[in-house]
Backbone:
C-alpha cells in the first residue's frame, strides 16, 4: 500500500510521463519512506539511514533503530494511524547517528529504550563531543554480555551480544515468535562497510560474531540488515551472514598479502574489489584502512 507521499510522487511521475528509474527522479525522491510488512505484524521502514524494524499490535509496539528525527517522525505518524497506545519499546542496535539520532522524536512516546551498555557509552561520548547531548534520547536499559529479553504483548524481543564487530556495542535483535532478526550494521549486504575503530570495531572478532549468529538462528530466520548495496535488499537469510563473513576475511587476507608484497596502505586502499568477494563492489578504502590498522597499527 502506498503512503500519501508515495502516491503524490507516483502521480507526478505519471503526469510527466517519466520513469521512476530516471536518475534525476531517483535523486529527487531518494528520501521517500517505504514500509513493508514481513510477518507476525513485524515490518521494516526505510528512508534515510539504517533500516528500522517495527512491530505494531493491539498488545504492544516495538521499534528497532530510529534513523534521524524527521524520518522517525514519519514512522511515528504511521504508527499513530494504527494505534493510540504508547510505544512499549525502542531498541538501538548500536550508537551511530543514522540509527539513533531519531531517538529524540520518541521522547515522551516510549516506555523503555534498550541497547548494549557499550552502545550507550558510545552514543553519550559521541554526543558530548558534538555538543548535542541535549538532543539525544539515551537508552535507559542496558545489558553487558549474552542476552537480554523483553516481552511485549505476545512477542518476545531478545538482544544478543557476541562481542565487538562493527563497534564494541552491536546487538542482534530477535523477534522470537516472528523469527525475524535485525542485524543493525553487523551486516552490510553487498555494500562496503563502515568499520568504526574509534568505537572498538574488530574485524577478526566480527567474523566470529557472524559465525555465532549463524549458529544461534536457523534456516527459517528472516534477517533485516542495516544497509544494502545498490540492487540488493535489506533483508535476507543466514547464508548472507556467511557471505559477509567471507568478505571480511578476504579483506584481511588482501591487506596482509599486500603488505607482505611491499604495498603501502594507500596503494591497497585504491582497490575497487576484494579478491574472493566480488559482490562487494566499489571503493574499498574504508575497509582496507580499518584492516591495516588492526593488523599493523594496534
Residues:
Amino acid at each position: 500500500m502506498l503512503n500519501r507521499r508515495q502516491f503524490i510522487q507516483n502521480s507526478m511521475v505519471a503526469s510527466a510521463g517519466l520513469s521512476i528509474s530516471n536518475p534525476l527522479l531517483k535523486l529527487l525522491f531518494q528520501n521517500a519512506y517505504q514500509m513493508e510488512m514481513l510477518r507476525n505484524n513485524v515490518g521494516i521502514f526505510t528512508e534515510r539511514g539504517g533500516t528500522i524494524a517495527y512491530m505494531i499490535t493491539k498488545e504492544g509496539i516495538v521499534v528497532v533503530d530510529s534513523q534521524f528525527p524527521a524520518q522517525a517522525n514519519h514512522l511515528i505518524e504511521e504508527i499513530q494511524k494504527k494505534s493510540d497506545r504508547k510505544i512499549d519499546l525502542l531498541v538501538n542496535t548500536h550508537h551511530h547517528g543514522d540509527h539513533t539520532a531519531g531517538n529524540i522524536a520518541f521522547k515522551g512516546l516510549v516506555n523503555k529504550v534498550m541497547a548494549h551498555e557499550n552502545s550507550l557509552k558510545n552514543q553519550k561520548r559521541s554526543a558530548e563531543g558534538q555538543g548535542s547531548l541535549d538532543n539525544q534520547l539515551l537508552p535507559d536499559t542496558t545489558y553487558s554480555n549474552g542476552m537480554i529479553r523483553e516481552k511485549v504483548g505476545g512477542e518476545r524481543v531478545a538482544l544478543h551480544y557476541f562481542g565487538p564487530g562493527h563497534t564494541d556495542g552491536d546487538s542482534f535483535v530477535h523477534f522470537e515468535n516472528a523469527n525475524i532478526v535485525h542485524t543493525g550494521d553487523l551486516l552490510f549486504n553487498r555494500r562496503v562497510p563502515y568499520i568504526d575503530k574509534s568505537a572498538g570495531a574488530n574485524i577478526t572478532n566480527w567474523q566470529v560474531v557472524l559465525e555465532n549468529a549463524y549458529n544461534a538462528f536457523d534456516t527459517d530466520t528472516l534477517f533485516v540488515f542495516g544497509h544494502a548495496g545498490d540492487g540488493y535488499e535489506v533483508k535476507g537469510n543466514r547464508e548472507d551472514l556467511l557471505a559477509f563473513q567471507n568478505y571480511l576475511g578476504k579483506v584481511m587476507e588482501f591487506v596482509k598479502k599486500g603488505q607482505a608484497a611491499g604495498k603501502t596502505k594507500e596503494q591497497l586502499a585504491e582497490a575497487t574489489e576484494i579478491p574472493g568477494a566480488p559482490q562487494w563492489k566499489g571503493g574499498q578504502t574504508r575497509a582496507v584502512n580499518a584492516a591495516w590498522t588492526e593488523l599493523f597499527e594496534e
